[in-house]
Amino acid sequence: MLHSALINVMVKAARNAGRGLKRDLGEIEHLQVSLKGPANFVSLADKRAEEVLYKDLAKARPGYGFIGEEGGNREGADKSHIWIVDPLDGTTNFLHGIPQFAISIGLQREGVIIAGVIYNPANDELYIAERGKGAFLNDQRLRVAGRRQLNECVIACGLPHIGRGDHELALREMAALQSKVAGFRRFGAASLDMAFVAAGRLDGYWERNLQPWDMAAGQIMVREAGGTVSCVDGASDPLKTGHVICGNEYIHGELVKIIKGLGK
Ligand code: IPD
Ligand code: CA
Ligand code: CA
Ligand code: CA
């Protein structure tokens, strides 16, 4: 499968940073793990991966802006393009040796995400999406699942960790849903939750209080796989509100009906 030069740049950077993460996995005692806030871990692995990504992306596209979770916000001369990067999505999983984590790279042009790459180096799953060109997992074209009945669906959510978000609300949301779905999951890496929706592994996913780097690439992945992504209100831009909900258009609609009303 031939991808554009832009996607090749993103894939190369992701694979390069992924090699570092794979090396660091299981070496936790050497990773200087610290807390940014309650239960909000960061390690040398996160920081090194961000440096690799910044270097590779800046070299290939000098002038593009860069927003990275670990503080690497760098303005570029080209004001219309911005990389939105999570160097290690799923740090808690990573630090526990759970192989559900990823590098997530989104590219925004004039405020619109035009490309996304999500890479899990632990199992070498590489997700790619480019605006108008579809979404792929290791060169297989992706399509969201087609189920229309919630009681046949596997749905994932994200829960706020200590010190973040509204825990009571998260419990109310899960209580409202768990009796209506075939299966309920919480994997712990937002970018992969969205990639799983794009791949039809999950029928839907929602989470509140995310950051743009958690979902920039995931958003285009789901859309290019034919799915619907919005804020939990069903309309606004999740990159602005931080609250995301996605699935095929029917399941997205069903989830919005249930989740939207609870957040007041
Ligand atoms: C986290 C993961 C997790 C989600 C958190 C995010 P990080 O990202 O995506 O699934 O529930 O809200 O902060 O900190 O591991 O990059
Ligand atoms: Ca983090
Ligand atoms: Ca993240
Ligand atoms: Ca991260």
UniProtKB/TrEMBL annotation:
Database matches in InterPro entries: IMPase, Inositol_monoP_metal-BS, Inositol_monophosphatase-like, Inositol_monophosphatase_CS, Inositol_monophosphatase_SuhB
Molecular function as annotated in GO: inositol monophosphate 1-phosphatase activity; metal ion binding
Catalysis: reaction(s): a myo-inositol phosphate + H2O = myo-inositol + phosphate
Magnesium recorded as keyword: yes
Co-factor(s): Mg(2+)
The protein's enzyme class: hydrolase
Transmembrane segments: none
Cited SUPFAM superfamilies: Carbohydrate phosphatase
EC number: 3.1.3.25
Family: Belongs to the inositol monophosphatase superfamily.
Protein name: Inositol-1-monophosphatase
